[in-house]
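Priority: medium. Attachment 1 of 2:
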């Protein structure tokens, strides 16, 4: 097997340690696969470049995630840090009414809620849990390079103080999130040609929430340059984010906090909810053009899981679910490879299919979510052929199990095309607009 990059060598810096499986990154994907493999008696090491608890965006979870927390044995812990989320509120400037979608109206009524969480807490909880289940968890260790040979991989690591060390592993799992360590090194990361968005986000105190049981719902507000999320957290803080087309972020001429407030002012319905709110620490984050996928998700001695493989867009809050699901699927492949089982290749092919399934199914809707026809579907959903129930199931993340939603999703897509053709002028206008919207521009991140 060739080294993973032209610069990769087998020169080893610093002391060398050994393990069976080395996981790059201790976010939800990395901690999940480490837990599963450690529980099966594997010698697993997780290397995390940061120190938990650390900030991360991605606070809204999906009902389908609950079953995965259950299987990991952390459901009660997640419940303790989470705000119960029973559904989604949609607010559109072109519609008088607001639309409320409840997960209990999905095809399968047995997954009625999820949680909103602070990711610093969730990710630390999952990381420590992996340690409790027997994985060796290391913080402040950044993977710099991975080189493969016939018996395994050598992984070069940089510590917080700049010192170097190396690991020998039989198998490497890349769970490094948007850093995409292996896809960069293997030069197989591909920009998504069909989508392009950027985000601005911060935390507020004092935001006005929905009443009663709806308090924990996520709200999606559409506005001229994209959409906002409104995610209530259990401690009273609310996460607000604007997901915009790149040209809009490029237009910024003021510091981020001011620009963020100006952006919020473009969405009067959100501005009202924030009229008494304060931006925590005057801190606003920006994430530029983030839609990508790797051309492959696995090799003889590696897998890419979660965002290390692909990320499309946060509108359906699917990132953590896809990350954890890929870890569950990936654990079976790693085991089979380590045991040199005959079914290893079949499992790897199934993993490849599954890891593409989530981004593909969500993408169809993501590409169209700002389109007027699709917006109408969300704002006034009808249920012929159970299409509404199927759509809610998809929004709940119920796309991997046996729930028979796919025929109804097909009908929904067909209806979308029929309505689009029926409103041809509007459709062509929206299509042209989208082509302009997704054009690439360089965005300043601070
Ligand atoms: C603006 C925005 C909003 C989002 N909102 C949501 C949401 O509401 N709900 C949702 O489910 N998802 C959301 N997401 C997506 C979500 O954040 C990710 O999909 C999810 O965190 C993926 O988990 P992961 O474990 O694959 O990666 P990560 O959570 O990113 O974890 C990767 C870990 O690897 C570590 N790492 C990176 N490089 C190295 C290295 N070289 N060596 C060692 N460690 C390394 C990082 O420090 C990190 O801890 C959002 C994303 C964006 C950009």
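Attachment 2 of 2:
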């Amino acid at each position: 097997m060739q080294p993973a990059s032209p610069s990769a060598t087998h020169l080893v810096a610093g002391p060398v340690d050994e393990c069976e499986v080395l996981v790059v990154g201790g976010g939800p994907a990395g901690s999940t696969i480490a837990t599963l493999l450690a529980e099966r008696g594997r010698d697993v090491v997780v290397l995390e470049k940061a120190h938990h608890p650390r900030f991360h965006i991605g606070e809204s979870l999906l009902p389908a995630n609950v079953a995965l927390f259950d299987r990991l044995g952390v459901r009660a812990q997640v419940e303790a840090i989470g705000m119960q989320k029973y559904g989604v509120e949609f607010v559109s400037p072109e519609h008088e009414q607001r639309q409320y979608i409840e997960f209990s109206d999905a095809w399968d009524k047995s997954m009625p809620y999820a949680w909103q969480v602070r990711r610093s807490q969730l990710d630390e909880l999952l990381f420590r849990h992996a340690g409790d289940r027997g994985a060796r968890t290391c913080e402040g260790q950044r993977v710099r390079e991975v080189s493969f040979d016939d018996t395994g991989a050598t992984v070069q690591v940089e510590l917080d103080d700049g010192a170097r060390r190396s690991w020998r592993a039989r198998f490497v799992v890349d769970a490094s999130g948007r850093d995409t360590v292996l896809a960069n090194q293997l030069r197989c990361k591909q920009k998504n040609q069909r989508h392009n968005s950027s985000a601005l986000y911060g935390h507020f105190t004092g935001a006005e929430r929905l009443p009663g049981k709806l308090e924990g719902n996520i709200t999606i507000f559409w506005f001229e340059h994209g959409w906002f999320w409104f995610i209530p957290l259990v401690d009273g803080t609310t996460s607000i984010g604007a997901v915009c087309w790149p040209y809009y972020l490029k237009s910024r001429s003021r510091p981020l906090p001011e620009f963020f407030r100006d952006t919020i002012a473009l969405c009067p319905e959100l501005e009202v909810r924030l009229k008494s709110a304060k931006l925590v620490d005057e801190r606003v984050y920006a994430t530029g053009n983030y839609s990508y996928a790797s051309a492959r998700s696995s090799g003889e001695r590696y897998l890419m899981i979660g965002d290390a493989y692909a990320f499309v867009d946060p509108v359906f809050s699917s990132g953590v679910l896809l990350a954890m699901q890929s870890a569950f699927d990936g654990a079976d492949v790693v085991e089979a490879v380590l045991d040199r089982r005959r079914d290893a290749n079949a499992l790897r092919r199934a993993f490849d299919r599954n890891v593409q399934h989530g981004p593909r199914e969500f993408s169809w809707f993501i590409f169209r979510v700002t389109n007027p026809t699709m917006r109408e579907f969300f704002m006034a959903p009808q249920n012929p052929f159970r299409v509404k129930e199927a759509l809610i199931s998809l929004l709940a993340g119920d796309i991997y199990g046996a729930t028979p939603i796919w025929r109804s999703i097909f009908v929904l897509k067909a209806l979308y095309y029929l309505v689009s053709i029926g409103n041809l002028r509007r459709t062509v206008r929206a299509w042209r607009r989208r082509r302009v919207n997704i054009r690439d521009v360089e965005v300043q991140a601070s």
